[in-house]
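Contributing new records

If you add data, match the layout below exactly. Sequence lines come first and carry their own label; structure lines follow with theirs. Keep one chain per record. Anything else will be rejected by the validation script.
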Amino acid sequence: MSRQSKYHTDLQNLRADEACEFLLSDAKFISWYSASDSQGLVILGDMGCGKSVAMAFLVDEPRIRNEYQLPQPRICYHYCRDDETGKADYIFSALILSLLEQFSGLKMIFFEWYKQARASGNFDPATDVKRLEAFLQKTLETLDRPLFIVIDGLDECDRASQDSLLDSLKNLLQKTPRLKILLSSRPQDDILERLHEIAKINLSSDDRRDRVIVEKTVERKLSNLSRDVRALVIETLSRLAQGSAIWTKMIVELIEVRRIRALDPMRTFLDRMPLPAKLSELYVSLFSRCSANDPENRKLVTTALEVLAITRRPLSILELAWAVALGTDQEGVTSVAALAKLVDHHRVMSLIQPFVAHVNVGDVKKRQVKLVHQSVKEFIIRDMPSNRPDLQDPAISRTTYQGLIHQRTGSLEAGLLDICIKYLLLDDFGRTDLFSEEQVAIEELPQEFDLFSNDEESTDYDPHCTWETWEENMIRYDPTDRGFGELFIYASCHWIEHYGAIVAEHHPNLESIENLCQAGSTRLQNWIKQNCRPQCIIQPRFLFDSGLYDPLSITSLYGSDAMLRDMLESSKFDKSKFLPNPAMGAADQILQWGELSRLRILFLSSSVGPQLWNLEFFRLVMKQWSSPETHYQNWDVVFDLIDDVLDILVEERWGNELLCIAASYGCMPIIRRLMDNSRFPSVSLRALAYSR
């Protein structure tokens, strides 16, 4: 059995026909199959989605349909792999060999052609692409019946082989009657451009198809498991497959290798689901191919994948390209215009294509670029060649491993945070306002209604309405119109999320944070205006008044605990970058919007804590406590701060006034703390408090 036939048989054994049958009812397949003239069709799908298995199904389907047709159509198929089978000469040779096996009368013709080629000085015509192509084309013109040519894995071929093959197939379609050509490929830009005139079917992720594939794979490999254990495996893998048939296959094979049989151990395995070693090896191989082992390419691919592994939402093609440009070539870049000259989105997408889900390359602003599967994110964090080797050591304990993963994830967060901060610190954002005067005027107008409509009917409340739907018909703006570039939206809206994920060993430069959040600055106003408008609607989604913020209040609300402690220890709060009373401003924001546990960090700091050891702070506390919007929080951590200032309260004699204020707000938690403490002596005011 030839390698191609054996591989086809292996795919037949893997195949769940039910997961492929939807192709037969696709209008493009029906048109291609039933057409009386020569036509081509392309099956497109992301890495590991099951393209080869689907192609094996489509190879067998015409055989079944045409078993009794005369003259019977013939099928020549070839599976390209990342080896010599993806070379043009091998593909043409394989197709010719398949024809010779099916048409015995051609063997003598081929033998004569071979002799003539050698006699003319070509001692190995089987490796001469042009001669093989010419022989194939001449042979097909003489056939007396329909012919199907099926080639799987066009993306596995090198560029020269792709060009040669596509040129030849185009000529064959034009010159050969009753020829049907079926190709499959990942959706690479250069291939799509060459095939723009040919009909295409996309193998997109489908929950039902995923489940069929999982059930077939489990039935074939894990039939010895009890019914409840099989059900658990099927349910879990179906939910996590997300269109990745190769991931499903390798996880099931890993379960088979480990011989897990009992329900609880299986549940533990599925909860901790490791990245299969074979899948990691595949990704390493793809990484090497994508970068062509070129240092600059490796740097670009690494940066792009690390950004996608940690980003908070899908990026647009341009957002990713701008992030990569800033992440790989920052030296001397101080303006949006300078950075724009470094951006090459075609290069970025072509280098990382196997690792990302299918995108519409014609819409470079659509937020669509994401990793093809969760397992790719695991690979980037754990096994990508740029990682430290200790993450890939199988001998480390699980606790140590989880610690290393946490550190690595923190490193990725810090990397994207650094890109966002560097972008927002470009000179343009410190001197140009995000909104023009006209847009500022528009902001003051109602956005959600038609002012000239007589329709007074109220809009029904829909609890399931998304922000995108709500804002669909509202007035929009584009930051690029103000020269803000393509990364401004993501950086403004999400840098604070990355800031909150920073661990101690990956602190950003404090001076950068202070510059980015400088009180009253145009830069602060710009990114805050954008932050509350993630979809670029003139009307903000929520209030975010930049005049109330400075580096300390932003860090208190959004930075990690480690970052807040670092700022409290290292920053000089008398600088103009901060508000006049930074501690009180930060405390006010925490009380309204933040984690109340942060207040204790602020309160006990030696640098700004003393600014809060007074009556005004506790008045502010009770004011915010009395607001119905904040009653859901656990305020004990705030009220307990009374214990830390009792000596000051007594020494400065503002305890009685505090008790009166607490009584006026009805704040029993503070009253009780004052009453229960022996250092607070006012009997008369206790009676007053309790009488209220």
